[in-house]
Amino acid sequence: MPDAVFADDQSVSPLVRKAAAWSWRLLIIFAALVAVLWVVKRLEILFVPVALATMLAALLMPAVDFLDRRGAPRGGAVALVLLTGIAVVGGLLTFVVSQFIEGMPALGEQVTRSIDGLRVWLVEGPLNLSREQIDNAGNAAIEAVQNNQERLTSGALSTAGTITEIVTGALLVLFTLIFLLHGGRNIFGFVTRVFPPDVRERVRGAGRAGFHSLIGYVRATFLVALVDAVGIGTGLAIMGVPLALPLASLVFLGAFVPLVGAVVTGFLAVIVALLTKGVVYALITLGLILAVQQLEGHVLQPLVMGRAVSIHPLAVVLAIAGGGVLAGIVGALLAVPAVAFLNSAIRVLLARDQEAEVQNLEDDEGPRIQAEPDDVEEKVD
């Protein structure tokens, strides 16, 4: 019987046998990935805050380590950095919201004047529409809103539920961030004890390499986003476009989604300029956004982001698209940092010479950040 099976196997083309062997292995890997994604999707309320807290920890960890090395208690350093960050972010948000509230009446008046001017142009311009046609179009829009009132109401109710989830997630982010900043290395050391002793140190080295790349990515993204916001916000303020500061803040937040975030949020500035200042200012705003994007793409990205993490632009685009399909805006935000982490971690994990691979990463991304002493084994054991 075994000879017959062996004969049947030999009768199949070697190419088909290899393709079959690759196929069932790839199917198992694909099934495992689908299972992991399904679990992450089901526990999104847990995974997303932890991922966001990890990104914030990558941004704040160097400051905490700096204070720790200067002799400050670890808990006090975490509290100081967190309170300072919350105060800065809270002050900026308060200022932006107040500016938005103060600027809304003037923006509404300018939009009304623009709509009136557009109506006059439609009537007296080349289209030569009648006022009755314009009124009918406006009435149709109002009727459409009224017909979909129930849907809009249900959307508002779902938004209320979303706000509850956001508050819950924000609290989870805060608590997770505190523990990661205070004892993240010890937590990682404890978790990695599930691996066999002969590969445990390699796994820990891969994790340290991935987190270092994440630190570089977050810091570089923060710098790029700040430059985008300052450049676009300054141009809007010089042109007298209303809500320049809130629009610049949106650009800053949008820039954390690489390649597309700043463009999408900048398009809102073009719309505001079009409604309030006219076509000429809208075109100037569009040119300003394109100029800032050129500065980012040809100067900031190669100098800052290129040293932080080496990822091909195609991989960035595919990661953003995949993250957006799987988890919307949050997925697009977290996709590239996840790829940056995995890129360095897998390189170190699979390298034959781990020390040489870490040195290669240092040459590509800059030296490792010397943080608190790596006494994970002593504290955990």
Automatic annotation (TrEMBL):
It is found in: Cell membrane. Its main location: membrane. One of its GO terms (biological process) is transmembrane transport. It is a multi-pass membrane protein. Residues 372-381 have a biased composition (Acidic residues). PANTHER family: PERMEASE PERM-RELATED (PTHR21716:SF53), TRANSMEMBRANE PROTEIN (PTHR21716). This is AI-2E family transporter. It comes from Mycolicibacterium litorale.
